[in-house]
From TrEMBL, chains A, C:
<comment type="pathway">
    <text>Polyol metabolism; glycerol degradation.</text>
</comment>
<keyword id="KW-0418">Kinase</keyword>
<dbReference type="GO" id="GO:0004371">
    <property type="term" value="F:glycerone kinase activity"/>
</dbReference>
<protein>
    <recommendedName>
        <fullName>phosphoenolpyruvate--glycerone phosphotransferase</fullName>
        <ecNumber>2.7.1.121</ecNumber>
    </recommendedName>
</protein>
<dbReference type="InterPro" id="IPR050861">
    <property type="entry name" value="Dihydroxyacetone_Kinase"/>
</dbReference>
<feature type="domain" description="DhaK">
    <location>
        <begin position="7"/>
        <end position="328"/>
    </location>
</feature>
<keyword id="KW-0808">Transferase</keyword>
<dbReference type="Pfam" id="PF02733">
    <property type="entry name" value="Dak1"/>
</dbReference>
<dbReference type="InterPro" id="IPR012736">
    <property type="entry name" value="DhaK_1"/>
</dbReference>
UniProtKB/TrEMBL annotation, chains B, D:
<feature type="domain" description="DhaL">
    <location>
        <begin position="5"/>
        <end position="205"/>
    </location>
</feature>
<comment type="subunit">
    <text>Homodimer. The dihydroxyacetone kinase complex is composed of a homodimer of DhaM, a homodimer of DhaK and the subunit DhaL.</text>
</comment>
<dbReference type="InterPro" id="IPR036117">
    <property type="entry name" value="DhaL_dom_sf"/>
</dbReference>
<keyword id="KW-0808">Transferase</keyword>
<dbReference type="InterPro" id="IPR050861">
    <property type="entry name" value="Dihydroxyacetone_Kinase"/>
</dbReference>
<protein>
    <recommendedName>
        <fullName>phosphoenolpyruvate--glycerone phosphotransferase</fullName>
        <ecNumber>2.7.1.121</ecNumber>
    </recommendedName>
</protein>
<dbReference type="Pfam" id="PF02734">
    <property type="entry name" value="Dak2"/>
</dbReference>
<dbReference type="GO" id="GO:0004371">
    <property type="term" value="F:glycerone kinase activity"/>
</dbReference>
<comment type="function">
    <text>ADP-binding subunit of the dihydroxyacetone kinase, which is responsible for the phosphoenolpyruvate (PEP)-dependent phosphorylation of dihydroxyacetone. DhaL-ADP is converted to DhaL-ATP via a phosphoryl group transfer from DhaM and transmits it to dihydroxyacetone binds to DhaK.</text>
</comment>
Length: 330, 209, 330, 209
């Protein structure tokens, strides 16, 4: 394990402090908790809380700020935060209009956030939750846990965050978040594994000529392993999976996110985007906005995901609304 | 008979056992999950051990509740709320007790299992900790009802837990993180079932002495 | 070599096209040249051109836009662009007020940009140049090539770009660029090498327990190799080098950039920043602004550099001025 | 006597030689530079080869200038402007010539060296291409002045270039990218000196036939 860290058990704390020391104008840390909230609390609006394990930076602290989240909870690396941490975040950000929890669909995240919601409700705070499950690699089914929540979550933060900022009610904000969830799909792949600091070794091993398809964002193995092929073929495969699960026609408008997992350089992400654009363009689908970068990472994993969000007039306007956070600005 | 001192001792031994198996459980989780189960549980049980001196004179219900709350607030992930809820629910029905008989032990596991099921919405056969805990509980009840000694009953329970762990190798995960692997999860034993089995091993060992 | 690319010889072209397809509202490509210019040319201001080899993304195309560069020239990976490419950029961006070339101090960059300047002057375009040499790892000397230009270059883009945007003259813009160059220092280190696509294998090898100190941004070996130690010790070493070459006293104000080389996750960069802050804080030096992220990369190299820029009232104001580019927004 | 057809042939052979040594030059550059020297020069000389048909009937001055301009606009890096300038300067003084005698060849190298020095501001002993080119030129002049055949003179020039390359192993780089390595550059031969040496090898081989 080669990392720029001190003790593995301190990475979360030192990282959060490093964020606050760099961006004190955006976020502050709740003393004693691994929770980042806006530097200046905005009262009288629906508050948004998201989070999950650490290791996904800039998610989720990087999305706290005007037009996006009000609070982000950071668990240990790849481990859902505990209910008391989430509860603390809820209490800190509630501005009297209720709190929306944006949860990625993992058993741990769902259970911990739900327990926190129960605690908050006992204190009289209005809490709603949405569960993001955009990962088309995993076949959803009534009998399983269902799909994972991955990079599409950021579009939920952005769009629900924009509506909340405008003063909408908790029900309205939840409804638009659900709309985004219904219309967003993601597929990911990895060239290398990643190493959880406390574990000290990679989560899986890949030979020089293999890639892992259908990967999530926790360094876990994907749905299957394939021979590494050229970028355009990989994109074709991912787009087939994504579009096969969406109902898109010519002239429909979409937002695209080409998301790096942390170890893949922008050079490669743009090469991926070059072909993502062509695939959509050839089908007559209109790309309204594109985001390329490291948004929802798996520590230093090399690889990427592609997210497509089908837009309508409402979500277009909310996507364009001002967002001013550490890692996402529109 | 298990008194509250013994309960404290067992909890300490569980913490030790988890600590010894930290890497093993983590490796199992790396194969079909995200490689943190041993790390998570070890962090939680170490926190429990630190709390023990503050509750050493308390009743067993309070002890179990404190263990559960500590796990909930330190483990995280899927196993934190599940093990935490299990201990908390068990604690709730043992309130005021300073010692446990066989029937108390059965009650504890009934409540724990119910707690896990309500929180995690899984059933036996989905490749989770329930595949070790439920058969172990059934063996325990069967043996105690037959009139076996607690020692023998716990030994049978441990065996059943071990068989449950073996069984998890043969099935596809449909709950938890391993479910994303589909077919690929076959052939691997479930880390949570394994940690549950280790808890039964500690119970057996503690009652042998 | 595990990369998300198609043919190695096409990476530069496909990448630039991928950038334009993602961010057409910011940049366009000059047809037939590997040059990105602002989507909307701003006339009647001094124009800024920078560039270098590819492989440093988001540098330099990511810094083209309001308040920063007017054009960025992209050579082959880690290879200075040729004079004709630079010349084309100069012609495209010149708005009648002259063009400032911001060159990183490498023999190749200096020679190619100089040849382009000669070509431009023959066409009657007013051209000035500044050469950035912020890398304290290399001892400067009259008898050698001198120090390299590395991540500090981005502060030159930002501050000179802000002044140019305000309508200053070529001489004034050059002067403030020189002021930044005189006051900025950087030091870098690497945990892993990187692989130039056309080469197919890493530039050097490092064992699991070694790091390369005094690294540049072209995958070349650094000044020396050391046993890998914890992040705080590495930061101590880098800060000693940087501050040893600056004249900073308590109450002085600085800007800080913790720059990732492409393969290092934000988690680690923030852990680095956590200690950079403490080192400066302890000396009473005031941190005016901090930037943490991948700004000047070496493809997928793991490692980072730390840059410290001493500020005065003028440069503070220009640092705060609006910049709206793909990869740098203030 | 070398006519313009021979010049074209030599240029084609240089391109071949560089192509064959692409990896070797790149590896040398990886050790003390950024690992692209072979890639850069190969890209440039392949572009030159593509241009050759368009200038096959031109005078030697035009041929050399075209080679130089093509190198400048395709190689990049440090070696592009340097080799490019060298060919362009040489072309400028061979304008109109359809064949070269020994003294022309000396003039070519004098101009080339001057061009490299003005552009790169380096002197002999700084671990650059000049450490191969200058001694090779001096050997060539010495031999031609002695009355040796062109063939023998080029053979001596190649030897001197080889010695120059060996010499670069013993010194610290103070120009170019290798200068950043300081002491660490000792023990490695300079890639640019090596590519220059290869050009002299081609010259020698072409005049042997
Ligand atoms: N819904 C569930 N019900 C019961 N047990 C579950 C459930 N989901 C997961 N588990 C158990 O949790 C274990 C994983 O725990 P852990 O690795 O700590 O959490 P995470 O999956 O969040 O990383 C699995 O091996 C499984 O036994
Ligand atoms: N100032 C200079 N004068 C003469 N030759 C130089 C100079 N700087 C570098 N070189 C030569 O250029 C070679 C490196 O060329 P190349 O690798 O193509 O360029 P870069 O260093 O830009 O990657 C060096 O080995 C050296 O011989
Ligand atoms: Mg986990
Ligand atoms: Mg796990
Ligand atoms: Mg180069
Ligand atoms: Mg080179």
């Amino acid at each position: 394990m080669k990392k720029l860290i001190n003790k593995p058990e301190n990475v979360e704390k030192e990282m959060l402090e490093g964020i606050v020391k760099a961006h004190g104008e955006y976020v502050k840390k709740l003393p004693g908790f691994n929770v980042l909230v806006r530097a200046k609390k905005k009262e009288n609006k629906v508050a948004l809380v998201s989070g999950g394990g650490s290791g996904h930076e800039p998610a989720h602290g990087g999305f706290v700020g005007e037009g996006m989240l009000d609070g982000a909870v950071a668990g240990a690396v790849f481990t859902s935060p505990t209910p008391d941490q989430v509860f603390e975040a809820i209490k800190a950000v509630d501005g009297g209009q209720g709190v929306l929890l944006i949860i990625k669909n993992y058993t741990g995240d769902v259970m911990n956030f739900e327990m926190a919601a129960e605690m908050a409700e006992m204190e009289g705070i209005k809490v709603e939750k949405v569960i993001v499950n955009d990962d088309v690699a995993v076949e959803g089914s009534l009998y399983t846990t269902g799909r994972r929540g991955v990079a599409g979550t950021i579009f939920v933060h952005k769009i629900a965050g924009a509506l909340a900022e405008k003063g909408a009610t908790l029900e309205e904000v939840k409804a638009v978040a659900e709309k985004v969830i219904a219309n967003v799909r993601t597929m990911g792949m990895a060239l290398t594994p990643c190493t959880v600091p406390a574990a000290g070794k990679p989560g899986f091993e890949l030979s020089e000529h293999e890639m892992e398809m259908g990967i999530g964002i926790h360094g876990e193995p994907g749905t299957h392993r394939e021979a590494l092929v050229e970028a355009d073929k990989i994109v074709d495969h991912m787009m087939t999976k994504i579009l096969g699960d969406m109902d898109l026609k010519a002239k429909d408008e979409v937002a695209v996110m080409v998301n790096g997992f942390g170890g893949t350089p922008l050079m490669e992400l743009y090469i991926v985007n070059n072909h993502v654009y062509d695939v959509l363009n050839e089908k007559g689908i209109k790309i309204y906005r594109t985001f390329v970068g490291n948004y929802m990472t798996s520590i230093e994993m090399a690889g990427c995901s592609v997210t497509v969000l089908k837009l309508d007039e409402e979500t277009k306007e909310l996507l364009d609304a001002k967002a001013n956070t550490i890692a996402f600005r529109v | 008979m298990i008194d509250h001192k013994k309960v404290l001792e067992i909890i300490e031994k569980i913490a030790e056992k988890i600590h010894e198996n930290r890497q093993f459980l983590t490796d199992l989780d790396a194969a079909i999950g995200d490689g943190d189960h041993g790390i998570n549980l070890d962090r939680g049980f170490q926190a429990v051990v630190e709390k023990l001196p503050t509750i050493k004179d308390k009743d067993i219900g309070s002890i179990l509740k404190t263990v559960g709350m500590t796990l909930v607030s330190t483990v995280g992930g899927a196993s934190g709320p599940l093990y935490g809820t299990a201990f908390m629910k068990a604690g709730a029905v043992m309130s005021g007790k300073m010692e446990l008989n066989g029937s108390d032990i059965l009650t504890i596991f009934e409540e724990a299992i119910k707690g896990i099921q309500v929180r995690g919405k899984a059933n036996r056969g989905e490749k989770t900790m329930l595949d070790a805990i439920e058969p172990a509980y059934e063996a325990l009840r069967r043996e105690l009802e037959k009139g076996s000694t607690l020692k023998d009953a716990l030994s049978q329970a441990e065996n059943a837990a071990k068989e449950g762990v073996e069984y998890t190798k043969t099935i596809i995960a449909t709950k938890g993180r391993a479910s994303y692997l589909g077919e690929r999860s076959i052939g691997h034993q479930d880390p949570g079932a394994t940690s549950s089995m280790l808890i039964f091993t500690v119970l057996k060992e503690s009652c042998e002495e």
